[in-house]
Amino acid sequence: xxxxxxxxxxxxxxxxxxxxxxxxxxxxxxxxxxxxxxxxxxxxxxxxxxxxxxxxxxxxxxxxxxxxxxxxxxxxxxxxxxxxxxxxxxxxxxxxxxxxxxxxxxxxxxxxxxxxxxxxxxxxxxxxxxxxxxxxxxxxxxxxxxxxxxxxxxxxxxxxxxxxxxxxxxxxxxxxxxxxxxxxxxxxxxxxxxxxxxxxxxxxxxxxxxxxxxxxxxxxxxxxxxxxxxxxxxxxxxxxxxxxxxxxxxxxxxxxxxxxxxxxxxxxxxxxxxxxxxxxxxxxxxxxxxxxxxxxxxxxxxxxxxxxxxxxxxxxxxxxxxxxxxxxxxxxxxxxxxxxxxxxxxxxxxxxxxxxxxxxxxxxxxxxxxxxxxxxxxxxxxxxxxxxxxxxxxxxxxxxxxxxxxxxxxxxxxxxxxxxxxxxxxxxxxxxxxxxxxxxxxxxxxxxxxxxxxxxxxxxxxxxxxxxxxxxxxxxxxxxxxxxxxxxxxxxxxxxxxxxxxxxxxxxxxxxxxxxxxxxxxxxxxxxxxxxxxxxxxxxxxxxxxxxxxxxxxxxxxxxxxxxxxxxxxxx
Length: 572
Hints:
The strands form 8 sheets. Strands 23-24-25-26-27-28-29-30 form an 8-stranded parallel barrel. A 6-stranded antiparallel β-sheet has the order 3-2-4-10-7-8, with no helix packed on it. Strands 1-12-5-9 form a 4-stranded antiparallel β-sheet, with no helix packed on it. It is globular, with a radius of gyration of 24 Å. It is built from 8 helices and 32 strands. The longest helix has 18 residues, at about 350-370. About 45% of the residues are buried. By secondary structure, the chain is α+β, with helices and mostly antiparallel strands. Helix 4 runs parallel beside helix 5 and helix 7 runs parallel beside helix 8.
């Protein structure tokens, strides 16, 4: 980009409970009853009556945009709006988006006026239904609003529409670019620069002719320093696009040199096996809801690191892109997920749902595939993939994922692992293991089940993608292990990890979960979920975290900090 204007600030805000905004043309003026709200934020924190609000709200921003001689194209960029939104500029519809967790952009070049007041109006609807992605009834809180950053950026008449960087630990790099508004015959070139941030030395610099809309550039970094869990070193990459020797766009990102592979049922990083242990993690923060705060999120990863974790499943949707940057900088491997959660037969049969899932996959790939830490794309979460109806869509979905990014592993966090009809298409078998907590059995009761899964897929590594126990903070049971006590949670997770570690075919585990988090109080909303287990959660909270909502460690955190060390024995 040539210019970027942050729109993080106070906006005007009004609730539209009766969905009257469109008919009253709220898109071309700010209603008199609008109030101030900070963007980014979740509206659930604005007023008490909005705590559990699902529905429509409008956001407004007035701004004067100065003319810039090199800016020929202006784009509104939203990092996340939950769930559906329509965007107007100066009373005209600029674009719409569906999906609450993926970034998106809307070209507003023809709608803005320079050196004059412009009105941006955004209609947001966070209503979850049976056929949204994710669907109604998921086990986390449905925050609403423009809850991530917003900016207006400008480029020239030609721009870098997409960039994908593929690296090798030996320094070989392939860069794929897609050029927006490329015009054949016009002189266009890409200046690529790679800098060592520690020495500030340029380790690569070169100018490459841009000959088509899609281009592939190859380069080599001498004396390359690969990225690893122990040494998460990343280079600064930049691309400057020039047209007739004039800059029209720029792109920058920190990227580590690394490569993933599978051999002998092991996950390899740069040709060496790694044993993975860590946590699932929701975007959930005290007083912030799902809104990102760099210092708070970085502290989360410091706590994980101190607890001997090296692996995070960012569930159950794409998190803020900066969280992946933090994970990369601190030496974590990550599972990134599309919010294809709890799909049943009706979802796989619904064309709109399937297309929505495809769109969100494409957006996730576009905006996240250059994040060094991502080793796995989790494409489905606890879906009914034990039914034939799922096979065609899942197999084609994986093919699309591989076309968009062939460098990472695909995985499915399944609750029907032995009967799953789609495991054959995935690189890695993911198993959600809930013996003991939900099924009334013991931890060990599923041991033979895991052996049978391993025998059925003898060439595939197995990662335990979920499993946990609830411990209410500060609830202790000294004479006997009580169901909700911190003591029993610590005992369960310790036994669980030890069982996983004893299986040669298991190469990693994810504990559910890092932090306690809010869930939907379905009963209070009058929804027909009265016979489901999540309506019984104390305080509308999921207490399976090893730290509480405020990041205060429970006994299980300290216990796992020691037990996690056992994984390294499998590398000896």
